[in-house]
Amino acid sequence: MRLVLFDVDGTLLDSAALIHACMCDAFADFGLPPPRPEASRAIIGLTLDRAIARVLDREIDDQVNALTVRYKEVWLDNVGKPELQSPFFPGMLDLIHDLAGRDDLLLGMVTGKSRRGVVRLLDQYGLHAHFVTSRTADDCPSKPHPAMVLECCSETGMAAYDTVVIGDTSYDMEMARSAGALAIGVSWGYHPVDALRASGAGAIAPDAGAIPSLVETLLPRG
């Protein structure tokens, strides 16, 4: 048995437009200039307070905490707008269905999303039974801290060396490496492929169809 842990934003879902819109709306409410799109993309994967602090290039303080609360309110307003939907990247929903049907793999999520955001996603696509474990920004310290991976391993009884993290950012790769797990980077996400390799990716998936064989290469069946 192997444990496959998926990041969500930038790996499963293309959520950059929604996240950037929420950042811009929240910042505007505080009289702050909107972040550049590339700045919003660069922080996807971190917990929200750390992400906002990084965009502002400062430590977490009272204003960052207030912006975090406002972002969550704005997210509720924006998440249902047709122009701000977060579709699955090509092939990823089918991949989840296929991998969840195998008897030699367990699937989990490790994400900077809130627990509410994860539940909404699982409800929307009927995926609750596909993921046996998950950790969110509400449960653990921000990536690249290894807690998300280690807690998923503990919950499922899996060893970190039998676990692979699939993600699109250097935060995912560093988290996996710190936990003693393996990592697969995806080429379609929000951090450059070179950054994924430099931060610990054992392989890079050019598309969803490549992921099963890369899992087998990094975690051969025992």
Structural key phrases:
6-stranded parallel beta sheet, 2 domains, 222 residues, alpha/beta, DNA polymerase, domain 1, Rossmann fold, 10 helices
Describe this structure in words.
This protein is of the alpha/beta class and 222 residues long. It has 2 domains: 2-14 and 86-218, HAD superfamily/HAD-like (Rossmann fold, 3-Layer(aba) Sandwich), CATH 3.40.50.1000; 16-84, DNA polymerase, domain 1 (Orthogonal Bundle), CATH 1.10.150. 45% of the residues lie in helices and 12% in strands. Strands 3-2-1-4-5-6 form a 6-stranded parallel β-sheet, with helices on both faces. β5, α9 and β6 form a beta-alpha-beta unit. α1 (16-29) crosses α4 (62-78) and α3 crosses α4 (62-78). The longest helix is centred in the N-terminal third of the chain and has 17 residues, at 62-78. The protein is globular, with a radius of gyration of 17 Å. The relative contact order is 0.17. The model has no long low-confidence stretch (mean pLDDT 96).
